[in-house]
Amino acid sequence: MRFFLRKKxxxxxxxxxxxxxxxxVVLIFLLVTTTFKKPQPxxxxxxxxxxxxxxxxxxxxxxxxxxxxxxxxLHLGPDAKLVTADRLKxxxxxxxxxxxxxxxxLSADKKAPFGxxxxxxxxxxxxxVKTISAFTKQAGSP
Length: 142
What we know:
Blueprint: H1 16-33, E1 64-68, E2 74-76, E3 81-83, H2 85-98, E4 103-108, H3 114-126, E5 131-134
């Protein structure tokens, strides 16, 4: 019997540099073919003008404003009368009975105690006020 000595096969060598070159070419292709434009609106409308047009919400009743100062003092209504938390609750209930669609707007100082804000929101919930919003300031404006 004749036995052949087999040579040990070495695993094929993977050339990493060539793979990296191919990946860079694919990446460049994707970057070049991708558009970086901001999406344009699908429709450009020229709305008609009217001398009798009113702004949205102009016919609605203005919201009831609650102002919370830095020290936690509460002011209610257009005349900004000073009220306590208990008095605020009764005032909100009375206003909500007059107008079931009452909208409440909070205008709180940045440093106002968060507990006062929560008390106002709780009072609004008890009065069954459906809409509560807050005044904010646009970033960068004085």
